Each structure stands twice: as structure tokens, then as C-alpha cells.
Amino acid sequence: MCEVFAGQDPQRYRPVNRSVRIGGHSTSIQIEAAFWDLIDEMAIGQGQSTSRFLSTLYDEALEINGSVSNFASLLRTSCLIYIMGGAKKCDGAREFHIVAAE
To answer: Under 8 Å CB-to-CB from 32, ≥6 apart: which residues?
Structure first.
């Protein structure tokens, strides 16, 4: 196994809770520290505070999908899209395909 994965600093995958205000309601979101680092970077790239970025993302996902059943998972997958370069294609979202295990 590659040490890049197994040997990473445990602080990167420790769970971190942040209290945020989304849709006028206070809530707590728990995701790993490395994801919060990316979310902060994404917010800066959008010229927004992290709280404003999260609220905007939630509102847009709600408008597009009708509901947001797992916001923490939405945040993690948004980070994946960001690091895979999908953020550069805002009007043409990258498609992800699930590869079946053999």
C-alpha cells in the first residue's frame, strides 16, 4: 500500500465540527479537517466567506434537486469535483461514473 495514503498526518482526517447558519437556521456540520481546508479554499476562490459559500451552495442544491438529504456528503463530493478540476466547468459539470468492483 502506498504511504501517501496510509502515512498521512492523522490531523488531516480527524473530524471537525463547525457551526454554520444555513437557510436562516444554525446547524453543525462534521467533516474531516482536510475537507474543511478545501472548502475554505473554494470559498475564497468564490470571493465569499466560508459561511456564505456554504449557504449559497445549500440554496442552489435545494433549488436544483428539491432537497438536500446529506449536506456533509454534498460537501465532500464538491471537494472531489474541485480537486479533479470540475470547478472550471461550472456550466458543464463533469460526470462521474461508478466502476463496478471485479
So the answer is: 12, 13, 14, 15, 16
* pLDDT at 65 exceeding the cut of 60: yes
Residues 6 or more apart from 41 whose CB is under 8 A from it? 82
* Grid coordinates belonging to 55: 449557504
Cβ atoms within 10 A of the Cβ of 67, count? 6
User: CA triplet 21, 68, 95: central angle to 5 degrees?
Assistant: 120
CA distances, 74 to each of 65, 71, 99, 102 (Å): 12, 5, 20, 27
Q: Distance from first CA to last CA of the chain, Å, rounded?
A: 19
The residues pairing with 26 across neighbouring beta strands, listed in sequence order, are 21
Work out the pLDDT band at 93, boundaries 50, 70, 90: very low
The pTM of this model reads 0.83
